[in-house]
Amino acid sequence: GSNVLRMSSGIQIKPKTAVQKSKTSSPLPCSPEPALKPQPKPSDKLNPKTIDPFGAHSRPPSAFAAIYAKGGIPCRLVHGSVKHRLQWECLPETVPFDPLLVTLAEGLRETKHPYTFVSKEGFKELLMVEGATEKAIPLLPRLVPVLKAALAHLDDEVFGRGLDALVQLSAVVGPSLNDHLKHLLTNLSRRLMDKKFREKITVALQKLEQYGGKVSWPDDYSVICTFECNFA
Questions:
Q1: Which of 188, 154, 147, 189 is nearest to 168 (CA)?
Q2: pTM for this structure?
Q3: pLDDT, tens digit (0-9, with 9 covering 90-100), for 56-68
Q4: Contacts for 131 with CB less than 8 Å, ≥ 6 apart
Q5: Which pLDDT value is given to residue 192?
Q6: Fewest Cβ atoms nearer than 10 Å: which of 1, 26, 196, 229?
Q7: d(C-alpha 115, C-alpha 107), whole Å
Q8: 181: Cβ–Cβ under 8 A, 6 or more apart, which residues?
Q9: Which helix (H) or strand (E) holds 209?
Q10: What's the pLDDT tens digit per position in 87-113?
Q11: Is 8 left (phi over 0), alpha (psi -120 to 50) or beta?
Q12: Closest C-alpha to 145, from 102, 83, 192, 207
């Protein structure tokens, strides 16, 4: 009948009546709900410019990219004439660290723009707010495995972002990070074989000791010291 829509795939869909349509509520500040995606038109398949990058036939986005696309990250990249910056939808100090700080740390493994900038700068700026120490310490058991994955990544830029984030986190939480360092040093020791990271890793280790005080280093640190002696 006239009330039945025929899609290009042959599937018949009956329009919903007014009773069947559900009511939608207004999204909460800093937590916008994802907008409903319109049904693709047959012509969309023929025009690459109109293909939805998050569509069913496209490569699935990463977890961070998906959250960013749905508005789950309360900040956006602002292009400047000299350098880029972040614009927060609400004051960073009002944003719950759980789960945003962990989500931003997961985004450090991204390799595409703007996710690379948003995750790195967002992680840094969130750790700069007042009370960051008390908010970040309870998240260490979840943050350290995520940073470990960044430090184990084959991409040099991902490793660099992970190392910077580790130092930033250490400056905020201090000695509370010491018990978790044993999970990270193996990945650092492997990168010491790469000349372009040797100095940066050495400086990072010095800062970890500076922020954490006297650290009871595991065996991995002796391996790092051996690398420094042999390849300095």
A1: 147
A2: 0.70
A3: 444 567 889 999 9
A4: 93
A5: 86
A6: 1
A7: 7
A8: 208, 212, 215, 217, 218
A9: helix 195-212
A10: 999 999 999 999 999 999 999 999 999
A11: alpha
A12: 102
